[in-house]
Amino acid sequence: MSESKRKPSGKLAEIFAKINMSDLPAMSSHVQEILDLTSNKKYLKHEHLTKIVLQDYSLTNKVLQFANSAYYSPGQKVATVSMAVAILGFDTVRDLCLAIALFDDFIQAGIEKEAISKLLIRSFLSAMLAREIVSTRFIRILPEEAFICSLMRNLGRMVACIYFPALFQDIEREVVEADISEEDATRKFLDGMTFPELGVELAKFWNLTDTVIASMDTDPPKPESEDDEIGYLKNMADFSNRFVDGLCGNNSLEPLLLKYSEILLVDEAGAIDILENTAEASAVIFDSIRFGLQELEECRGKENLEAPGGSDHESDKGEVQGKADFNEQLVNEYSLKLSQTLMAPFKLEHFFSLLAEALWKGVGFDRVLLLMLKIQGSEKYMKGLIGRGEISQEEAKKFLHPLEKVDHAVVRALKGCKDMVVPENTQGAFPEELEQFVSSRTVYLFPICLRKKGVALLYMDTKSDQPALTKKQIKYTRMFRDLAVKAIMRKDKA
Asked: What angle do CA 298, 304, 307 make, to 5 degrees?
């Protein structure tokens, strides 16, 4: 499009000059045509939208899949795009096409598919959430405007992730290591600009609507009246995106709901119910963003319900779970679930989370930790990534085991790539700072090795009053460890 050939000016030019990009990323012709339908809808008919969709085979196929999905299916097969437009409505199909075309553009442009998928699916689900809340709560704004404004609210963050991933990773790392807000971190690396401010500049360059630009406000005031359309769009975009982010980040939603429940007439259960339906709908059309859908399944507990025996993952919220006994049926069901996960695109952390749960609930360990090898300068150590059982996720992530002393059990297991059992209170088996952690515990160490080098470790233990593991439990533990090796190998090849 012509806009992409112009040179950005002002602050935006400084940012792109810093990252050696002379041009802003271009939007495809299909995205631009669909956006044109938004501003010129008054003068356009259904056949105009149908014609745009039919120009792209992939877009046509996805629209028909969506129209025939469980979420939107009218009870009869939708065989043509014109029929989809007639049944679903002009606005729904246009919004859907915009999401598909825009996301396909971004997916093709990016390198870090997993990170991009995460951002895109969250934006799409936020948009669907906003649309449904507006439609069902009789808020006086157009559902399609709520959809587009919520979809585009995180435009700055998405473009940063896709077009300058190194800078995006620096910002994420700064937030964690320096313990500062994302706003402060982005101002540091983007010469005083935040992600929302970047999004506003991009939206202006792309000639997006004033309502889209206004809805990038990160702290909108309450609408002035029931007729304050811009005010409601701002609040709706802010709520829907923060709700999905909070749900996926296991953060408390109470402050958000306290602010918005009265304004938008929504509660947590109702919002989650909408997300469940929209996830089912989006699953049929977005093959390229399965990572994000898997993450949502984790967020809303669907994976836990599908997983054998169910789980509420309370350990993710800082609480601990009780003892689980050996259950061979659960072990076999988890094994099938993990094997199926390996056959499709997957998130490594999602896979390990399910694997740790299998070891806890199926095999019957008291505590399960997945430790990953970390190297910082000349120092090497094992750091907790995931914890299940009688340990909270917060405690698991604080677990650190230095690798400087070769006589420690973890070092020996990693170096020799050998499974080890450490009887309770074995003197000198662990660093002094971990002696209290392993006190009166029988510890089982199963290293995860690639090319005979330890890259991760499954730490599991049982209390002193528990019997030793049986041969069958050891066999299944090794089976799960081997699945972990396959998962890492698949990611290395990707």
From this structure: 125
Please tell me the distance from the alpha carbon of residue 223 to that of residue 231, in angstroms, as a whole number.
Answer: 4
Q: What is the pLDDT of residue 437?
A: 94
Contacts of 305 (CB under 8 A, 6+ apart): none
Q: Which of 280-284's residues contact partners 24+ apart within 8 Å by CB, and which partners?
A: 280/69, 280/70, 280/71, 281/66, 281/69, 281/70, 281/71, 281/72, 281/128, 282/121, 282/124, 282/125, 282/128, 283/69, 284/65, 284/66, 284/68, 284/69
- Do 315 and 295 reside in the same domain of the chain? no
Q: What is the pLDDT of residue 83?
A: 84
What per-residue confidence (pLDDT) applies to 248?
A: 75
Predicted local distance difference test score (pLDDT) of residue 301: 46
Other C-beta atoms lying within 10 Å of the C-beta of residue 41 = 15
Same domain, 250 and 376: no
User: What CATH number is given to the structural domain containing 399?
Assistant: 3.30.450.40
Query: Are 214 and 321 in a shared domain?
Result: no
Residues whose CB falls within 8 Å of the CB of residue 264, separated by 6 or more in sequence, listed in order: 133, 137, 139, 235, 236, 239
- Say whether both 292 and 322 belong to one domain: no
Q: Are strands 379-389 and 441-450 parallel, antiparallel or unpaired?
A: unpaired
pLDDT of residue 37: 64
* Residue pair 180/173 in contact by the 8 Å Cβ criterion: no
| Percent of the chain residues past pLDDT 70, beyond the cut | 76
> Which CATH number goes with the domain that contains 28?
1.10.3210.10
One domain, residues 472 and 375 = yes
CA distance 19 to 193: 14
Name the residue among 280, 285, 299, 273 with its Cα closest to residue 136. 273
Task: Tell me which residue has tokens 């405690």.
Answer: 395
**Same domain membership, residue 364 and residue 250:** no
Judgement on whether residues 89 and 196 belong to the same structural domain of the protein: yes
d(CA 337, CA 358): 10
Question: What is the number of structural domains in the chain?
Answer: 2
Question: Are residues 239 and 217 located together in one domain of the fold?
Answer: yes
Give pLDDT < 70 ranges for the chain: 1-32, 35-45, 69-76, 102-103, 105-114, 249-250, 277-324, 492-494
pTM for the model stands at: 0.55
Tell me if 305 is assigned to some domain: no
Residue 107's pLDDT is 66
CA distance 127 to 461: 44
